[in-house]
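Materials and Methods. Structural model of FOG: TPR repeat. The 252-residue sequence of FOG: TPR repeat from uncultured Alphaproteobacteria bacterium was retrieved and submitted for structure prediction as follows.
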Amino acid sequence: MLAGAAQAAEPTPAAIAARKADAERYAKCMTQVESAPKDAFEAADAWAARGGGEPAKHCAAAALLRLGFPEEAATRLEALAKTTSRDDDVRAHMLDQAGQAWAEAKQWDKANAAQSEALRIAPGAADLWIGRARTRARAQNYGLAVDDLTEALKRDPKSVEALTLRASAYRYLDALDLARDDLDAALKLDPANPEARLESGIVHRLQGKPDLARRDWREALLAAPEDAPIVEDVRRNIELLELGEPPIPARP
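The predicted structure was written out as tokens:
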């Protein structure tokens, strides 16, 4: 009897095919968000109107963020997180994305609320601690950012991203020795990481070690794709070094 019930509950070939088609459509939509966000939004909106459900709504929100409407994107993502039928991990990451959108709008309290709720739901996810840390750093709450990144590293001690971001936060707190320790650890794990190399060069420059700064930035240029945003920051810092002017900070 139980076997028969389980067999009856299995999805039909048509249902499996429909799920596969939806997954492919969602992946295509999210890719289009990066290259043609207006087209992605229009396609996702039409898809949602025809019953596209959560995938369509999520893609539409992502497109709105890319188009420069962070408040509307955040509102939609929070609504989606409240109504999703997916598991807690998915809901938590939707809230984190909403927090990122609120941060783009410089709505720091709303960003913190969304990302704190995400962490309440999934406190074991290192990337969620990193997400809130980025928001706190952008809001210039560097001490709180350090706290979040320390929590992230408890969960993922080999996270080069967390080590690099914590080094940046330490730098803003004038704790250059602590920043140096984190960067040494990050570069031991990933010597060619462009973000870690950029930050390492900035700290070396502030520590009065221009030759080491220049070496780090050259390594960053070798490692980063030519069209990556970080390349502009690295080149500008090299120019400032040659001019004897202070470095510019890495982007949070």
